[in-house]
Amino acid sequence: MYGKAPMKLFSCRSSRQLAEKIAEKLGIELGKSSVTKFADGEFQPCFDESVRGDMVFIVQSTNPPAENLLELLLMIDAAKRASAYKVIAVIPYYGYARQDRKDRPRVSIGSKLTADLLSAAGVDRIITMDLHADQIQGFFNVPVDHLYSSALFAPYIGKLKLDNLTVSAPDMGGSKRANAYSRHLQSEMVLCYKLRKKPNVIEEMSIIGEVEGRNVIIVDDMVDTAGTLVLAADMMKERGAKSIRAFATHPILSGNSVERINNSAIEELVVTDSVPLNIHSDKIKVLSIADIFAKTIQAVNENESISTNFVF
Q: In angstroms, rounded to a whole number, what is the distance separating the alpha carbons of residues 44 and 90?
């Protein structure tokens, strides 16, 4: 191909609101697409404009239901069959990422299978944010641009001007993330150690470190049932923490999670709009990732570095 391929941005149904914000930041119109539905529930996405020879960016988080992932796969396949030059999947929240290893016998590795499905559909590149485990990037045989919400959260925390600041992770798996925040904010760090009976059910939790009189910031990649988060916050409050705030990139917020948060010691939960959030709570604040993704999409299209989007 001679010269630079034109850029077009499209969205699947679940992430349309975020895609519209990204398009606005880029100063372009969101591409036209539609979905045909059949009586039995089957659906067929369609591009309603030519994408021949274009750099096609498709925005869709793959949070449940599984239909969100399937729609993204069908859109990628449609773009490839319509002779798009490159197809880049913009996946703010990469679902099934918790299934990143065989932690017990006879289970699938869902995040690897999802990566294989995206590759089979014909994706040329992935842009995502705060994977549950960094090594998931290695499941792909195409480039993965892995962004971090610290570019939003760190400045926000700085504006709070909290003294006696302590950063915490809700479990040992988040220790690397908490350590990065702690070093950047020049604060102390504590960790939570938990034992699970089964997914989303905690058997035991203990806190490693001192929180008395401290303003605690709990950082995590996602909040689902909020069970771990609320238990950690309430334990810290019992141990004399001055205030507790939580920062989680992906607000899955299943079941009665919002009620748990409202009744907990958490003063504020700060999340992003990586997944649609139709829940309202005085304790929950949403920061938009549209600007970060718009800058990254522009950089990818221009073959420029994206490292300026990282804080730490």
A: 20
Select from 48, 68, 46 the least CA-distant residue to 59: 68
Say if CB 291 and CB 151 are below 8 A apart: no
pTM: 0.94
φ/ψ (deg, to 5) at 223? -130, 120
Is 283 annotated in the active site? Answer: no
- Rounded distance, CA 109 to CA 103, Å? 9
Mean pLDDT of 181-190: 95
pLDDT, the chain, mean: 94
Angstrom distance (rounded) from CA 92 to CA 252: 13
Tell me which amino acid residue 95 is.
G
Distance of alpha carbon 308 from alpha carbon 311, whole angstroms: 8
**DSSP per residue, 36-86:** EE-TTS-EEEEESS--TT-EEEEE---PSSTHHHHHHHHHHHHHHHTT-SE
- Please tell me which residue in 25, 194, 242, 283 is annotated as part of the active site: 194
Q: What is the structure's pLDDT at 41?
A: 94
By the 8 A CB rule, do 53 and 1 touch? Answer: yes
Side-by-side strand order, sheet with 243-251: 201-208, 188-198, 165-169, 215-223, 243-251, 268-272, 284-287
pLDDT of residue 3: 54
Q: Are strands 165-169 and 144-147 parallel, antiparallel or unpaired?
A: unpaired
